[in-house]
Design a protein that fits this description.
alpha+beta, outer membrane lipoprotein receptor (LolB), chain A, eleven-stranded antiparallel sheet, 7 helices, 11 strands
Length: 217
């Protein structure tokens, strides 16, 4: 069960569907930050907190319709991310550099320390770097690609680390002034799409955010 959860989250973090020809355009982190990601990365650089809504869609070959869930997320720079599913059930997933915790119906159903499961630390580093569009950190594990047409941009990632490549095939995040869509492909061909909306940025961390991560870091 733990292995399945780790695989699902690693797949969630780094796989993305093909967006036309993005993988024909290799880029360095510096090129992306000076081009496609100049505006969104600036917004994230000036913010301590990012919060919004998400729609998570999982496409499986054997099921004609995707599995859909909806909820809210809070990402705090230097602390972690709280991924709170509201529909079709209530489930809270908190990920930090030191571990992960899942809370279902008010009860902790899973808790893993990164010291016990090193893969958790890798998942956290990748996922938190992806949310903050920290391509300088991501370039250590991925080949980077990017395109831009007007205000619309796409950034592609392909793993160069064998352990990561065994789990997912590639990743693409796209948007305009911010990241709007993450489309994921894992090594088995399953596809995940995550749509972000109503995203707000704050320069200061409030008391509730600090309490959320207080005992996780």
């Amino acid at each position: 069960m733990k292995r399945m959860l780790l695989v699902c989250w690693l797949t969630f973090v780094v796989s993305t569907a093909h967006a036309d020809d993005v993988f024909n355009h290799a880029q360095t982190a510096e090129q992306l930050l000076q081009g496609a990601l100049q505006q969104p990365s600036a917004r994230l650089r000036d913010a301590q907190v990012m919060r919004g809504k998400f729609v998570f869609k999982k496409y499986l070959p054997e099921i004609p319709k995707p599995l859909v869930s909806r909820g809210t997320f809070v990402f705090v720079t230097g602390l972690g991310v709280d991924w709170h599913t509201r529909e079709p059930f209530d489930s809270d997933f908190i990920l930090t550099a030191k571990g992960m915790q899942q809370i279902d119906a008010g009860k902790t159903t899973l808790q893993i320390n990164a010291s016990e499961q090193p893969a958790v630390r890798v998942i956290a580093q990748i996922f938190l770097s992806l949310l903050s569009l920290d391509v300088k950190a991501l370039q250590n594990s991925f080949s980077l690609f990017g395109t831009q047409q007007g205000k619309q941009w796409q950034v592609g990632l392909k793993p160069v680390v064998p352990a990561i490549a065994a789990v997912f095939r590639d990743a693409i995040v796209s948007g305009s002034t911010q990241a709007d869509l993450l489309t994921l492909h894992d090594a088995n061909g399953d596809r995940t799409e995550i749509e972000f909306s109503e995203v707000d940025y704050a320069q200061q961390i409030n008391a509730d955010d600090r309490r959320m991560f207080a005992d996780k870091n």
